[in-house]
Amino acid sequence: MTEPKPKKINRFDIHFYYTKETQSSALKIREELKQRFPWLRFFNPHNQAMGPHPQPMWEADFYNSENLYADYGEVLFWLQLHHNGHSVLIHPKTGYPKREHTENALWLGERLPLKVETLTEIDPKWEIDTEEK
Hints:
Order of helices and strands: EEHEEHEHEE
Number of strands: 7
Strand content: 15-25%
Largest sheet: 5 strands, antiparallel
Distance between the termini: 9 Å
Helix content: 25-40%
Radius of gyration: 15 Å
Low-confidence stretches: none
Number of helices: 3
Structural class: alpha+beta
């Protein structure tokens, strides 16, 4: 049997980390990103560690993107130049949370040690194609 594959990747997630000392810088970058890429979907900042994330962070995703891969390239390029030393995790949403946050993850800045034991192998809410090809 072949390994299950996601039927499609419909977005990427951005996790932008900060500390108490760097929070204002991180939130300023968040506002700049919102203005430059208004189609990104932003979530409220988390001012404490949560789930696999070892530091406070804000999160955005590409859920509203109409041209996913081109938009990904533009956002990634902008973040590479403007993350200002913050750690940034970018990963695809595939239905495999542990793999998304580890082997399929892209890091800008310092790679942070995630609490991977909090992540499941398969997201039961995600549409997975398990048919053999």
